[in-house]
Amino acid sequence: MKEATPIRRLFTISRPYLKYFAGGILAAGIVSLLDLSLALALKKFIELGSANLAQATKLLRELCVMIVGIYAGKWFFSYQQTVLLSAGIYKLTTDLRGRLYNHLHVLSISFFDRQRTGQIMSRMTNDVGVVQSSGSVLTDLVTGPVLGLGGLVGMLYLNWRLTIAAVLVVPVMAVAIARIGGKMRSLSSVLQTRLADLTEMMEETIAGMRIIKSFAAEDYEMRRFSDCNREGYYAAMRGVKRSAALQPTVELIGAFGTIGILLYGGWFVARDQMTMDALGAFVFLMVKVATSARMIGRINIQYQTVSAAAERIFEILDDRPDVAEPQDARPPGDIRGQITFESVSFSYSGETDVIRDLSFEIAPGEIVALVGPSGAGKSTIASLIPRFYDPNSGAVRIDGQDVRGLLLTPLRRQIAIVPQETMLFAASIRENIAYGRRDATTAEIEEAARAAHAHDFIVKTENGYDTVLGDRGTRISQGQRQRIAIARAILADPAILILDEATSSLDAESERLVQEALERLMSSRTTLIIAHRLATITKADRIFVLERGRMVECGAFDELMRGNTLFRKLYEVQHRLAEASAHEN
Known about the structure:
Elements: H1 6-13, H2 18-48, H3 53-106, H4 109-114, H5 117-133, H6 138-143, H7 148-158, H8 160-181, H9 185-207, H10 209-214, H11 218-270, H12 276-292, H13 298-317, E1 339-346, E2 355-362, E3 367-371, H14 378-384, E4 393-398, E5 401-402, H15 408-412, E6 415-418, H16 429-433, H17 442-451, H18 455-459, H19 478-492, E7 496-500, H20 508-522, E8 526-530, E9 542-547, E10 550-555, H21 557-562, H22 566-584
Parallel strand pairs: 3-8, 3-9, 6-7, 7-8
Antiparallel strand pairs: 1-2, 1-4, 4-5, 9-10
Helix pairs in contact: 2-3, 2-12, 3-5, 3-11, 5-13, 7-8, 7-12, 8-11, 9-11, 11-12, 17-19, 19-20
């Protein structure tokens, strides 16, 4: 079966909105009929006015009034045409943007490893914007391209002096359009602000996709985006309605220019330099040239542009997640926290294994630290537990259950990750803490904040727990951001906790507070610590020393420090570097 083209697939998505397109096309057809009625009116009046010159002059004045009436009708149906077609195209692109956003939440972390954020944002903004702009040529497809050059040649043939006068009207119209168009700036600014909000939310959630998936918050983010997306639609339609009123108004002003040309042509008729038939034909050609000039050459270019944009959009929509739930997936139940790796091997590229035939078991409530040189596989192990990736071979089990057979949302809701680079959202402190449990009460949120040593600095902020943080929480210090992240994990009450050196790059006081909060958080929970600073893991029950994807040593801190171990060598190197840095300072 032949694969559907991007344009055909866009048409399939737009079927629910065909009533808007049909109404707009009908209105456009009526506008075209009104254009043609001008020629019929001219013919009728010319026939009636052929009796004598005085009667023709009177009928010419009546014709001017009729022209205004015709353009008033065009104003109404042009307004309807623009509003209906724009409603259809905006509903289509709102739907398309929502599909893209929701699909991003379905895709696996590996997709975001492969794709650059800027590329994803471009598909969701620029390419969808191209599809949105295609609504401007829908009327061209209804009325069809008109031979403007042929109309101009005909006008020159009928009366070259009148043609020059008609061309001179164009600059006057340009000034009028520029002045009236300036009124659209405020509405355009509102629309751009709404679109900026959408872009900010998309960029934020893409950057924080690991956190979103860790707390199984995909549905929440989809609903939040849907609300903002709908507001963008309403803002766009307010601008469309004003724009729809603007264009026919400008055209109505242009009708008075047409009347001027018609009266000037009457001067030629009065001096027998032009017949009424020729004047009628000239006016008809002039109107057709004026209304159709913008159509010439746009249709094919727009078709190719939209086709290319749609192809890039469907590249994302056609991407399938690497990690998916099987049809018989089951909930994990209440997790105790036992973690087992059975001969696990994994590679990101499919060529070089980051983890090689790795096996270990962590008991419920045990604290285990992962150490080793950069690239040893520490972060990869942490990513396999919540099933951000699937191993190439072997199995990852939680409480004896292979994670590949479990429902992702209930699994990830019982696993909390406190990363080294804390990700906070541009929302209130309250919302950030309750991100993993959005039904939490105020008392529960504050209790979690106190346990994380965050309550005291929160109440000193401008609006306390309702203080809105800046982009990624940049309005507060790194230590404060990490304590809010810890409070978020405490409130989520996970069975399994993964810490990615949450005390790095902090001053001594912040590190002390964060370390105390972490000790409370780790109590009675299975904890996996990715350790970069080895002095912070002295209290771990066991330490796994990794090298090139394999576990080369395992034991408690004191045990590993007694022998000639890789761990001791790494520790002593870090200790010497720390002493050297202290002496320099």
